[in-house]
Amino acid sequence: MLLSMPFKLELYNLHPDKIDEYIVKYDSEKHTLEKIIEFLQAMEEENPDIWIDIEILDNELKIKELETLSKIYPKLKFRLNSKHIKQIDDNIDKMPFKYYLKDVYVNSYSVLKLMLDRLQVSDIYIADDLCYNLPEISQYLKKNNVQTRLILNKIPSLIPGKGRDPSSPIFCPQDKKILDKYIDIAEFECGDPFDIHRFNVYYKIWFETQTWIGDIRSINEDLEIPIPNSTLFPNFTESKIRCRRKCALKNGCRKCYDYVLLAKELNEEGYYLKQQGENELK
Fold first, then answer.
1. What is the mean pLDDT of the chain?
2. Which of 52, 96, 107, 231 is the Cys-Cys partner for 263 at CB 3.0 to 4.6 Å?
3. Strands 147-151, 185-187: parallel, antiparallel or unpaired by DSSP?
4. How far, in Å, CA of 23 to CA of 53, rounded?
5. Could you read off the pLDDT of 150-197 as tens digits, one per residue?
6. Sign (positive/negative) of CA torsion 185, 188, 189, 190?
7. Does domain 1-103 sit in CATH 3.90.1150.10?
8. What is residue 177's DSSP assignment?
9. CA distances (Å), 202 to each of 44, 192, 222, 270, in order?
10. Of 2-16, 24-38, 192-206, 228-242, which range is least confident?
């Protein structure tokens, strides 16, 4: 997984080697096009391997300007939003550049078809039903040159009560090796203004140690129920990303609930799981 974060000069200097993609906000009322061009030219000279995502804050897209910018920096994408969909749909043939929608979660095959066939996005935020068929979805997206994005410290779901449901797509730091196969770009939600201290904690547990001994609620902003990570079996995620959400068809599957219940009981008894070759109970 590549890692993306908002660009600020002080953060760039702190993490020059950790970040693969920077998000730069652009408001035509506050910034001139020339300033953005200067920034892109400077980045191309200093670090041409970094992807730059320009987040357009204007309600109206200036498509000619975006096309001009796309010719200046080769690794450039535009981060648009749902307000722009009608204009995109009307002008899709005039948009020869990469873009994605920052506030649209692709949580069904219908939305997936819209994103790929009609809007022709370069990236999608995967959510809900698609998370339960991740290997197949990932293969399909790679075939269509579309990247998957995931905010690691959130639950990728639009369902009310997602934070109280163990069967929600909840991911943990030890899942990184699994997610590396299927997710292209990771992000962390760290507030606005961006909290670098939160980012450093998330980075360490997800990209360095890939473990967390506490309650998952502490590192996931959407989770509302206690799930002790130190006693959660790894099968919790491995089976979920392939299960196709069959429990929705009342097939009697309660694996997610059983894994969380077992984790709570083991934690209360003072046990933890230690990975040593294979996971064994200690």
1. 92
2. 231
3. parallel
4. 5
5. 999 999 999 999 999 999 999 999 999 999 999 999 999 999 989 989
6. negative
7. no
8. H
9. 28, 16, 15, 26
10. 2-16
**3 state DSSP class of 226:** coil
Mapping DSSP to helix (H, G, I), strand (E, B) and coil, where does residue 149 land?
A: strand
> Is-contact 122 159, C-beta < 8 A?
no
Q: What is the CA radius of gyration of the chain?
A: 20
Return the structure tokens found at 214: 């506490």
Please list, in sequence order, all residues whose beta carbon lies within 8 angstroms of the beta carbon of residue 265, skipping any fewer than 6 positions away: none
Determine the number of helices (DSSP H) and then strands (DSSP E) in the chain.
10, 11
Question: Can you tell me whether residue 126 is helix, strand or coil?
Answer: strand
pLDDT grade for 272, boundaries at 50, 70 and 90: confident
pLDDT, position 282 = 43
Distance CA 52, CA 60 (A): 21
Q: Measured between alpha carbons, how far is 58 from 216 in angstroms, rounded to an integer?
A: 37
Q: Which tens digits make up the pLDDT trace of 250-265?
A: 888 999 999 999 999 9
On the CB side of 79, CA atoms within 13 Å amount to: 20
* Both tokens assigned to 112: 């997936």
